[in-house]
Amino acid sequence: MKIGFIGLGVMGRPMAGHLIAAGHEVFLHRVKDISQHLVEAGGTALDSAKAVAEAAEIIILMVPDTPDVEAVLFGANGVAEGLSAGKMVIDMSSISPVATKDFAARIGEKGASYVDAPVSGGEVGAKAASLTIMVGASEADFDRAWPLFEIMGKNITRIGEVGAGQTAKVVNQVIVGLTIEAVAEGLLLAKAAGADSAKVREALMGGFAASRILEVHGERMVNETFEPGFRIRLHRKDIGLAMEAAKALDLSLPHAASLAQMMDRAMAKGLGDKDHSAIFALMQEK
Amino acid sequence: MKIGFIGLGVMGRPMAGHLIAAGHEVFLHRVKDISQHLVEAGGTALDSAKAVAEAAEIIILMVPDTPDVEAVLFGANGVAEGLSAGKMVIDMSSISPVATKDFAARIGEKGASYVDAPVSGGEVGAKAASLTIMVGASEADFDRAWPLFEIMGKNITRIGEVGAGQTAKVVNQVIVGLTIEAVAEGLLLAKAAGADSAKVREALMGGFAASRILEVHGERMVNETFEPGFRIRLHRKDIGLAMEAAKALDLSLPHAASLAQMMDRAMAKGLGDKDHSAIFALMQEK
């Protein structure tokens, strides 16, 4: 199949690589030295998002944030200018659920369909083709995109209509961020009280406090090793999406709001490029 | 072995029952109609905590809160009056880690040893003899108490010296409570955004948001069924212990403090005897 792939960052490079390796004809935009290997593997470099949309049947985006998606889609020489009826845009970036619905409507005006399919699993999951993919799409569009998702991920769920994938991703980031904060408060208390926090973590893994966060990030807190992993700076962006959605929905998310404040403070203190478990280090400071 | 058991509530009855069934000679205090079956099974009812401490070699406490433990130990006709050198007190209640160290020191003056061994797993775990037991004790005292723990629980960990068991339990309650709040914020956002929260929960169970809380309490929130389970009223007591410990240790636990406020509001709104996952119901109210 003719596939466009725009956004060749730390996530996009291995994802595009898997599509090429699976035998698809992949059209790339913004190929740099670091992504030149994708051309050598069989990808085709084109000089605009518009050209990619003209050449491909399905165009995948994997860019940092909402404004980047908007620019790639609707900027000069953007995807929208190259689209025609029957084509499909799949946005795998993690962006605003609210903006996603707007983008989908504008892409729909071209006769093309729109799927939001943000992922979790990070660089490791992207390389191993084991990403969790949360999809917002009509059932027909989901079926059409499925063979591509299968090449890049493992745990693939259609959450609902367009926007639902981004909603699920934002929900994921809220729960992950707040669970990290929960584990940090707990292990800080253990340590301050003079208990062996490694043993506390171990005992708690047998009960209702058990979580992937207590297992993985709890261990980082016990050892106080905070190399990323997933950077506070990036997680802060996602909590911002949650706060934006909450405002649009007249919803109060008090602990997510507090977490955003903690993350801002962590960044101001130079912890922005540490793993998100470094919230523990911030809270531990006198 | 001659064992005293004081505190025949919803947890204590099955725990004492397991000790009797295992062939121990068990001395009971405050036997009522609802605990009469323990006497029929072979237990001996005595009319004071002092008498229990005189008759038994190891005295187990399973009462509601810190003041109850203090009254049973040091009140008139209390355990301390009946203790002699070489005996052991095991407090399996969930109480203040700070007060625990004080109680242990005062019991130590009698030549007796003190072990704190709070549990998690609730009524179900008590009946099934599958409680998680978090122990604060010297190694020698832990070894001496071990055969009794094995009769009542499964996941038994010595966290450290006296007080460490209560610390671990408080840490557990902080992490469980805050993870419930985290899942509630996430699933509220999913629902408000119009996503199918059951599908969001399912998709998230495959990634870093996965936890026992998302699994069990997340399902309660999706179905909005909040019968206990573990009551908000009881969890509030434990968060109070965390706040007390934090104050004593000059530690700030901002989300635990906020959760205490939410739980107070839930109780004021008549949700105190609902499951702790009913924090979702509180937050959902307009």
TrEMBL record, chains A, B:
PROSITE patterns in alphabetical order: 3_HYDROXYISOBUT_DH
Residue ranges that the Swiss-Prot or TrEMBL entry lists as coiled coil: none
Active-site residue list: 169
One Gene Ontology biological process: organic acid catabolic process
Domain spans labelled 3-hydroxyisobutyrate dehydrogenase-like NAD-binding: 163-282
Top-level taxon: Bacteria
Gene Ontology MF terms: 2-hydroxy-3-oxopropionate reductase activity; NAD binding; NADP binding
Keywords: NAD, Oxidoreductase
Residue intervals of the 6-phosphogluconate dehydrogenase NADP-binding domain: 2-160
Annotated InterPro entries: 3-OH-isobutyrate_DH-rel_CS, 6-PGluconate_DH-like_C_sf, 6PGD_dom2, 6PGDH_NADP-bd, HIBADH-like_NADP-bd, HIBADH-related, NAD(P)-bd_dom_sf, Tartro_sem_red
Family: Belongs to the HIBADH-related family.
NCBIfam families named among the record's database cross-references: tartro_sem_red
Entry protein name: Tartronate semialdehyde reductase
Origin species: Devosia chinhatensis
